[in-house]
Design a protein that fits this description.
Blueprint lengths: L6 H4 L12 H31 L34 H8 L2 H4 L7 H10 L8 H16 L2 H22 L8 H23 L3 H24 L8 H40 L1 H30 L7
Helix pairs in contact: 8-9, 9-10, 10-11
Length: about 300
């Protein structure tokens, strides 16, 4: 770099010098705004064409539609936001929204704008309620709130990936071709997630390993589904869950922690030493029991009419 402008590199870097670390979240928001804008524009165009075909004098625009109230988190993803709201000012406000800027959760543009402009709860004007909520929030942060944040962050990122990558690419499909579609789309999704984290071969290998380890589950589920009324079916599923959990743990350790050498050393210690084998057997038994508990919890939810689809 020229010496007369070297001060740019040596000067003040801001309160967060490594801004590029947080750009990953900004990238997701940019894509969300663009995709939601195009989706809304296409819907607006379709409405206009349908009204012209019906012989209406003035085509209905999204701006003329009444915004529904009290939409749930799923319906907010497709909220009929007027085209005029896809403005540069709202775009910048969405990108720089402080509470979610650094660590998420990742909220889509439609969801953000709906909650900001079209659904202001009465409680936001109650000062006493706000103060009580602030005290409660501080208490939660000082105890276990970070666990809830971790769960919400992953759920929100999962919904983002489903909406903008997995479903547009065809999702799980149906029939025999559905398995191929699910495998290919899972490969695309995990490749994107790996590159989004960082452009490293180790992370790409992590994504591909996850998809590879999903294959036994996909094929075993398809083959043994016809035996779902047998008394041994649930226990077989629990054994499969133990195997799947082990494979996913190995993939995550490889991609985010140990790498090639560390993972190889871990596996050697796990299967070639008495302490490693003891740990492996006891851990597998614990995972088996945990899988059975989760199966029973899901069955209890179904008996109450709750289907969480997972």
């Amino acid at each position: 770099m020229a010496t007369n402008i070297r001060f740019i590199d040596n000067g003040f870097h801001g309160i967060v010098p490594r801004w590029d670390v947080f750009y990953n979240f900004t990238l997701l928001r940019i894509i969300s705004f663009s995709m939601d804008y195009l989706d809304s524009k296409n819907k607006d165009k379709l409405l206009s064409e349908e009204d012209i075909n019906l012989g209406l004098a003035s085509p209905i625009k999204l701006e003329a539609l009444t915004m529904p109230s009290d939409l749930d988190d799923r319906r907010r993803l497709d909220a009929p936001i007027p085209m005029v709201d896809y403005s540069f000012s709202n775009f910048v406000a969405y990108l720089s929204y402080a509470p979610l800027f650094i660590g998420g959760p990742v909220i889509t543009f439609n969801d953000y704008l709906y909650q900001s402009n079209y659904h202001q709860a009465p409680s936001t004007k109650d000062f006493k309620r706000i103060m009580v909520y602030g005290v409660r929030l501080m208490f939660c942060v000082l105890v276990m709130e970070f666990l809830l944040h971790f769960m919400a962050w992953h759920r929100s990122f999962n919904k983002w990936v489903l909406r903008y990558i997995y479903i547009p690419m065809g999702g799980a499909g149906a029939g025999t071709g559905g398995y191929i579609s699910r495998i290919v789309n899972s490969l695309l999704v995990f490749s994107f997630v790996a590159i989004w984290h960082d452009i490293e071969l180790k992370l790409l290998m992590w994504g591909w390993l996850v998809v590879l380890f999903l294959l036994p589950e996909i094929f075993a589920t398809a083959y043994f589904k016809k035996y779902n009324k047998k008394p041994w079916y649930r226990h077989l599923c629990a054994v499969g869950a133990v195997i799947n959990i082990w494979m996913m743990m190995i993939a995550n350790l490889y991609g985010f922690c140990l790498g090639n050498d560390g993972t190889a050393a871990l596996l050697r210690a796990l299967v070639s030493t008495s302490s490693g084998l003891t740990y492996f057997v006891l851990s597998s038994c614990a995972l088996f029991v945990g899988a059975q508990v989760m199966f029973e919890m899901r069955e209890a939810e179904k008996r109450r009419g709750v289907d969480v689809k997972c």
